Amino acid sequence: MLPVVALVGRPNVGKSTLFNRLTRTRDALVADFPGLTRDRKYGTAKYEGLQFIVVDTGGISGDEQGIDVVMAEQSLLAIIEADVVLFLVDARTGMTAADQGIAEHLRKQEKPVYVVANKVDGIDGDSESADFFALGLGDVNQIAAAHGRGVTQLLQSALAPIAEQFPDMHIPEESDEELQEIDADEQLANLQALPIKLAIVGKPNVGKSTLTNRILGEERVVVYDEPGTTRDSIFIPMERDGREYILIDTAGVRRRRNISEAIEKFSIVKTLQAIEESNVVLFVVDAQEGITDQDLSLLGFILNAGRSLVVAVNKWDGLNKDVKEEIKRELDRRLGFIDFARLHFISALHGTGVGHLFESVQEAYASATKRVNTSMLTRIMDMAQEDHQPPVVRGRRVKMKYAHAGGYNPPLIVIHGNQLKDLPDSYKRYLMNYFRKSLKVMGTPIKIEFREGA
Ligand code: GDP
Ligand code: GDP
């Protein structure tokens, strides 16, 4: 599990600037689901050896009226789901009434809150941020988000108190290759000893809970494990074809009393945590609605997390032949970037096609945890190199020397050689496909890491 860090503050204090620095990306997952606020952004932060989920809550001013109150409440939900709150204020403009309004709200929450005075570049940070001590939320941390100043220190102080609760937030250090292969084997042995964690993920109303119920209706459910808080998914151990699974139910099947609760119970943090937690994601889309931008954002997140993936195109009932053909063409067009994943056309409502999903889940997991060794990977790499030589850059041919395993689920292939940083993306894609075909893996992404030198 990764901790969730919420960025809170009135508009213009520098939340997006900090968010972008932490996630190093501009394509964050934007919450734009019906019934939820639009300007909340989610991403995975990897910063100075730490990783966590970061939420930019959008602007709240603290003195909302009327409809704004509802909007602000939506934003405040993000605070409830967070493990740590970073409350940003602007050191240049000084304290405002809005800051005080937000502080008042935060003081009522039982959450660790850190006051962060941003934009201390080029000003006397100590004297400009001293005012904010009056917010009554403890020490004032000084940063310049735009330049990265103070950010590492801030994260260390904010995350240290919850480090024991979230051991996964420390990114493991890179070891040398021999150790890395041993580590990879150890990781594999651990994976094989555990049940397959299967997360059922998708937007509200695509049919997740119908599907979950359908699966559970057919299977022997061992026991339910009720979660502690609203943001947590429900973990349901079950058996299928002699294999143990843990179903990660993000739809809240157990606690939901009616359909209209679907949106209320939908939580992006919950979805992201479930993806991080899982081995395989069963991603559900609504055939009748088509692929939306939100589906693509969620898929992008699943891909980045390196999870194995099976796509269930649900509500395949009651469509005529022409419409089905049209939907298939659209899926081909928009889902090219996850061409490693199998697609199943199902009806969770009627049960059609549901049984076959598990064949692909098994296959995806088997692919993600298939042991590979140095000689095998190096041989495949050599064949790829013979079939299609890497380019000559600045008069020297890029040379790949050997490859070894760096991890599983997803399979990580580490390639050593000379001038590898000059390899064009097209060649990397060629290699990826070559490995994919030679290793016969399906349903999992493959990651390749390049290391300079032998
Ligand atoms: P948000 O509305 O809270 O998300 O704020 P933004 O991240 O959009 O930042 C608002 C403005 O403050 C932008 O013009 C940023 O360039 C600027 N800004 C953000 N961080 C810093 C900083 O560390 N130093 C200075 N001088 N300006 C900053
Ligand atoms: P969730 O929010 O993703 O958990 O979605 P639900 O399982 O609550 O389903 C949302 C709506 O879609 C409900 O009205 C379901 O009856 C309907 N639904 C779910 N699966 C199917 C299906 O396979 N076919 C059709 N026609 N409707 C479905």
TrEMBL record:
Binding site for GTP 1: 9-16, 56-60, 118-121
Coiled coil (residue ranges): none
Subunit structure: Associates with the 50S ribosomal subunit.
Naturally occurring in which organism (per UniProt): Paraglaciecola arctica BSs20135
Superkingdom of origin organism: Bacteria
Family, similarity comment: Belongs to the TRAFAC class TrmE-Era-EngA-EngB-Septin-like GTPase superfamily. EngA (Der) GTPase family.
Domain EngA-type G, first and last residues per copy: 3-166, 196-369
Binding site for GTP 2: 202-209, 249-253, 314-317
Protein's name in the database: GTPase Der
Example of a GO biological process term: ribosome biogenesis
MF GO annotations: GTP binding; ribosome binding
Function: GTPase that plays an essential role in the late steps of ribosome biogenesis.
Keywords on record: GTP-binding, Nucleotide-binding, Repeat, Ribosome biogenesis
